[in-house]
Amino acid sequence: MIFYFSGTGNSLWVAKKLAELQDDQILFIPKLMEEKRGPFSFTLKQDEMLGFVFPVYAWAPPKIVSEFINNLVITNRNDYYTYSVCTCGDHAGLTMNVLSANLLKRNIKLNSGFSAFMPNNYVIDYDLDTKELKDKKLEQAKQRVEDISSLITNKTKDTFDCYKGSLPWFRTNIFNPYFNRFCLGTKKFHVKSNCISCGLCERICPTKNILLKNKYPTWGKDCTKCMACLHRCPVGAIQYGNKTEKRGQYYNPNV
User: Mean pLDDT of all residues in the chain?
Assistant: First the structure.
């Protein structure tokens, strides 16, 4: 089984592609957490593998992924192979180190980990990739996922092909805790007058943090900064601060 988290479709596409190549099933982490507070207990079938697919948020796994793993219980009599694929615009930092440490606390050994470059979507601080770069990343990702799948099929152990980038220790161990503590606020989210009150943002929010009040979205305090509400708004009415409107929207075109 493959546990995944995705806001704007990049990691969803990777999870679906891996499931297709591995004849496996995908499970959406927020949906599992919505249905049950935990512990999340699963028993793997004979020779079934355990996978995790998610985007990199501030050079570490998203907070919601870590919270899920902190309550994950795998009951199995036999050894099983565990792998992970993280999607990122460029640097992944020490994401796999953090994931491995979290899994070990649940008596789960991470056997391999990989990163896959995908189009950037964090428009709070960065511009979207150019169309040329976006298309290049999406095309290269197809072969990348097939290569990863081959390694997974062979159950290659102690293989960690994850692009850490520059200053990985600082980015993951210093900036990521800062991000989780101070950058998950929602005060800067706002909606423009062209909002059509379709309710899509409320339905797709993975943490159920958005509610429509008087036909307009309002944000609570349980935000994971996936930016799905902003990128998937059909009329571009949702913005964050005063810079995102000029940076556009992105959603993986293959899902």
Answer: 96
